[in-house]
Design goal:
- By secondary structure, this protein is of the alpha/beta class.
- Helix content is about 35%, strand content about 20%.
- It folds into 3 domains: about 5-120, Rossmann fold, CATH 3.40.50; about 130-365, Alpha-Beta Horseshoe (pyruvate-formate lyase- activating enzyme); about 375-430, Nucleic acid-binding proteins (OB fold (Dihydrolipoamide Acetyltransferase, E2P)), CATH 2.40.50.
- It contains 13 helices and 19 strands.
- It has a 6-stranded parallel sheet with strand order 2-1-3-4-5-6, with helices on both faces. It has a 5-stranded mixed beta barrel with strand order 15-16-17-19-18. A 3-stranded parallel sheet has the order 7-10-11, with helices on both faces.
- Helix 2 links the parallel strand 3 (about 40-45) and strand 4 (about 75-80).
- Helix 8 runs parallel beside helix 9 (about 235-245) and helix 12 (about 305-315) packs parallel to helix 13.
Length: about 425
């Protein structure tokens, strides 16, 4: 029996692509192994969002060159770095057998059978076979509803690596969600680079309509989605979240900067004021919602005044969770023509000040749960203490708690919160 190994970097979309690749290979009679040294086929499923992603991939390929010399093994580079670098990978690492971008994940059969060395086009037929998915979680199913992005933010390489927006048919998504529930999954997470830009290519149904339809499938205990774009938040999306209790009270809404001047240079399609207005609309309908966000520090031309506006926005919104990064120049993006990034020492200082502010806000948010009993979905043993269980609240906080170890995964338990840790809550299951 042939064997395969997949190394995965990046976001949930990449993780889901790996599930698609793995499922396809298992249908072809391959067996998945945990060590590269034991594999007949090695796939690197890569991510290009952060700086130096290419170096990381080529460094890994350098190590695989030695393995290739020792025995017959097929090596494929997949994902966003594959799409970004394309033929250059084959030129720099000629021992690589094929390079395949995200648009061809559903065509792995053809790539292998035809011996194609370069597959970085975006076929009209994406060949999305959800029945072949090798889902790794017994309780949760990721479902892609839209691929690519049309936004063209000046710092972002996604439109290049993932292509333009392509939404899946409404009925296909609903059918996949039903199949996931029938297989025992109780939590559904809808995925897309700009998930709330979804529009059915057949009926024209928007994201809000799809949210409502999936939420109403019997057996869907929790429904989540990521990543949303602030400019695509619609009344139908907000209404669906408000009207369906099983849609998580958690929304990741990347702002990137609190300065309208920087947002304009980023081509984010909204101002600071418009973003705050959108947040207010959501909070009016869903008062208990937990917001998280992404922020880029040190974007070309960002002044101290711009950065202070970012800090004040963080304070005003009160994000429970926040992901912040120094600006990373990406090849081919318009931001390269805007100007140089902020001096690295200044960007480092700003990033640390931002984290310090958010740490206080997050701590206050976590402490507010002390003494409360909250519903928690059981996901398994705690990573740090196997004697405890772990799960997430409806608004996405991780809770480690004492409870019956025989509790079935996917169950919802009431947990009394006794303390707040650095990023998590701690408590005990109650009747």
């Amino acid at each position: 029996m042939k064997t395969f190994f997949i190394e995965t970097w990046g976001c949930q979309m990449n993780e889901l692509d790996t599930q698609r690749l793995s499922g396809n290979l298992k249908l072809r009679g391959y067996k998945r192994v945990d060590e590269e040294a034991n594999a007949d086929l090695i796939l690197l499923n890569t991510c290009s969002v952060r700086d130096k992603a290419e170096q990381k991939v080529f460094s890994h390929l350098g190590r695989l060159r030695e393995l290739k010399r020792e025995r017959d093994v097929t090596i494929g580079v997949c994902g966003c770095v594959a799409q970004q670098e394309g033929k250059r990978i084959l030129e720099r690492a000629p021992w690589v057998d094929f390079v395949m971008g995200p648009g061809n994940v559903g065509h792995l059969d053809a790539v292998l059978e035809e011996g194609r060395r370069l597959a970085i086009d975006f076929p009209e037929d994406r060949n999305y076979d959800y029945l072949a998915l090798d889902r790794t979680s017994p309780t949760k199913a990721w479902i892609t509803i839209i691929e690519g992005c049309n936004k063209n933010c000046t710092f972002c390489i996604v439109p290049t690596t993932r292509g333009r927006e392509v939404s899946r048919p409404f009925d296909d998504v609903v059918a996949e969600a039903r199949a996931a529930v029938e297989s025992g999954r109780v939590e559904i997470e809808l995925l897309g680079q700009t998930v709330n830009a979804y529009r059915c290519p057949v009926t024209g149904n928007d994201f809000g309509a799809l949210l409502g339809a999936v939420a109403e499938i019997e057996g869907v205990v929790r429904l989540r989605f990521t990543t949303s774009h602030p400019a695509e938040v619609s009344d139908s999306m907000i209404s669906a979240m408000r009207d369906h209790a099983n849609i998580s009270r958690y929304l990741h809404l990347p702002v990137q900067s609190g300065s309208s001047r920087v947002l304009r240079r980023m081509k984010r399609l909204y101002t600071r004021e418009k973003y705050l207005e959108t947040m207010a609309r959501i909070r009016k309908e869903i008062p208990d919602i937990h917001f998280s966000t992404d922020i880029i520090v040190g974007f070309p031309g960002e002044t101290e005044e711009d950065f202070q506006e970012t800090l004040s926005l963080i304070e005003e919104v009160g994000y429970g969770s926040l992901f912040a990064f120094k600006y990373s120049p990406r090849p081919g993006t318009p931001a390269l023509r805007i100007g140089a990034a902020v001096d690295e020492s200044i960007a480092d200082d700003r990033l640390q000040r931002l984290f310090a502010l958010h740490e206080r806000i997050k701590r206050e948010r976590l402490e507010s749960y002390r003494g409360r009993v909250v519903p928690v979905m059981v996901e398994g043993p705690s990573k740090h203490d196997p004697a405890m269980l772990s799960g997430r609240t409806d608004d996405y906080w991780v809770v480690n708690f004492h409870g019956d170890p025989s509790t079935p995964l996917g169950s919802i338990l009431g947990v009394r919160i006794d303390s707040a840790q650095h990023h998590t809550l701690r408590g005990e299951a109650v009747a």
